[in-house]
Structure formats: C-alpha cells, structure tokens
Amino acid sequence: MARLDTRQKLAILADAAKYDASCASSGTQKRDSSGGKGIGSTEGMGICHAYAPDGRCISLLKILLTNSCIFDCHYCINRKSSNVRRARFTPEEVVQLTLNFYRRNYIEGLFLSSGIIRSSNYTMEQLVEVARTLREVHDFRGYIHLKTIPDADEELVRQAGLYADRVSINVELPTERGLKELAPEKDEKRIEGAMTDMKSAIDDLKDARRKFKSAPKFAPAGQSTQMIVGADGADDGAIIMRASGLYDRFKLRRVYYSAFSPIPDASAVLPLSRPPLMREHRLYQSDWLMRFYGYTPSEVVAASDDGMLPLDIDPKLAWALKFRDRFPVDVNRAPREMLLRVPGLGTKAVKSILGARRFRQLRLDDIRRLTVSLKKLQPFIVAADWRPVALTDRADLRTLVKPRREQLELFAA
Ligand code: SF4
Questions:
Q1: pTM (2 d.p.)
Q2: Which GO terms describe its molecular function (predicted)?
C-alpha cells in the first residue's frame, strides 16, 4: 500500500463508508461536557449529516478504519477483488481525527466501520481500541456507532457495546439465498448468532442497571442493522417480513434499507441498474407503519401488488384503497387505532383529534389544520359537517387522491 497522508486516507475512507446508510444517531443517552468535564455531547439531533448526490443522508465523520478486505462480497466496492485504491488508518489516527473534528465543531460523533483485515478478531480489536481510547483516555462524550464484525469473539463484541452508543451488525441481504449468492463468505446463522449475543448483553446490562446503579451502560442506543435492497431478487414483501422478524427477535432499534448502488467493475451476478430510490423510501414508510401505526407485517404486505409496494402512492394510502370497507372513519368516534389508518393523519394529528374531541364535535375545518392534504384524507373520514357519500367507493379514487407530483412526504402519512 502506497504511503498516504491523513487527508488522502480520509478522502478514500470517508468515500468508502458512504454506502452504509445506517448512520442515524437517535435514541442514545444524554451526555454532555458541561462543567468542563470531558469533551463532546450527544445533545441535539446527534451527529452531523451531509447529503450524498443521490439525496441520501450521510454523517460527516463516517469512515472506515480500512477499505481493504479479505472477503469478496459481490455488491461491495471494497471487496478483495475490487481494484479500488486502498487505505488504512491506525486506531490512534481515527482517535485524533475524531477529536480534531469535534473541537472544530465539524462533527458530533463517530460512525466507524471497517473491511476485514487479517481476521475478524483482529479487525474488531482495532475498532474497539478506537472507542476505548476515545472514552477512557480522552473522556469523549460524543456519539459513537461501531459496526461490529459478526465472526468476532463474543467478548470483543461485548466490549464494543461498553464503549459505543450504538452497535450494528448488517444482515446485508433479505434472504439466506441472496446472502449465499452475493456474500458467499458470510453466513446468516453467524450473523444472527452475533445479533442474539448482542441482544442478550443489552438485556443483561439493562437488568443489572435496574438493580445496581454502578453497573456499566451498554450500547444505550441499542443495535441496528442494514439490508441492501434490489441487489438480489427479494421483493418488498420478503423484505418487510424479514425486517419484522428482526425487530421481534433481536429488539432492534432500526432496520435500515439501502438501495443497491451499482459499483465500478461490478460482478456479473449483480443487476446493471439500481432500483428506484423511491423503493427504499416506500420500505422506510412501511417500516414506520409497523412500528408506529399498529400495522402487522402481513397487513403492510397486503398493500403491495404481487409483493411490490406501489411507487406512486405511499403504503398507507395503498392499504386504505385496497380495504375501503374499513372506511370512512368517524373522527369524532373512532378509536385511535382506526384514526391511525386514515391516509393523511399522522400520530401527532391523531393525538390532537383525540384531545380536541373530548370538548367538541370536530368539523372538516378542524381536520384541515392537522393535515398537509385534505384531498387525500376526505374520502376516508366522517366529520360533524362532512360525509364522503359515494366518494369512498369511486372506481377512480386512486387517481383522485394520489399526489400529482411525487414528493418525498416522509410521514405526512
Ligand atoms: S466483508 Fe464488508 S467490507 Fe468486506 S467485502 Fe464484505 S461487505 Fe465489503
């Protein structure tokens, strides 16, 4: 490997990390350096983000320790057979970069992943060393997200959880078949085994802290994972069911969906073009329906056409159009769970409706103030002065309510 200075390494290793979408920093504990103690804080919306040219949100200091790798996953730009320029940081270099960037207010935390060098354990040791030095030597109180290496020793993964706010292990692909085809050196059982160990460690330390205040904190922002969408043949239905299973079994904080990006010198087994970015967006919306709107995974899948969520309308609207017999919903009487099914009503709007209707009958104008699109919502509700009459059953209802120009309306829902 040619000798590179820090700036050159940073250019290579930050670029190599941009394919990982799981960089959000929500849900961690509150820490700060007030009173002159330590450095950094986890306040505000977490680590800084930038936007990649394709519109994806990426964090500012999101780097790999190295983009060299002994594995050869077909979809990965850093795979062994790729001829990209390689670079490698020492743990101390990452520590210094993080501190320098932090002091200059460029970042609020570190997202660190790595290709596998020498062995899984060796790589994991290096990742843990970065987090340990930041926390123990520099009293760093900013956010740390470590990607863990599934094959590494349980003890190393446990140490990662002691220093990091969030740990994540990528399941990579929605199906075991996809994983075998595209990441032949990875194994679903080993990945899930590591996630099970992490879940047990998080649960154990939570229990311990309930009994003893002095017990150490362990990955307070939980564990997450990422799935690549569109690299194998898995449809949205398979992805939704897989995500739901992962939430249930491993109590994940988040599943991230990353639309496959074609890479230079791609392997012949990969598709030539990327899936529409809107597909990734629809999967995030379906994920929210399961986590915050009370939909079961099978209900979300029922909103799809032959396993694929429609791209022109959001999954909540698609479900309402398919199950029109459940509508209209009376905003003055319906229970919360039915109000949450109304297209155009988000969780906050439903809360406002439930609060306001205790004092008076709600009219259409009251609802208008709670939604970005009354047109989308009108066919699905009854209010004190509004009934949709035959509107709900019109054959052309989809055309009437679908957004004219598609917008990324993340949970106007
Ligand atoms: S192990 Fe990770 S870095 Fe290595 S080729 Fe596979 S996805 Fe890429």
A1: 0.85
A2: catalytic activity; iron-sulfur cluster binding; metal ion binding
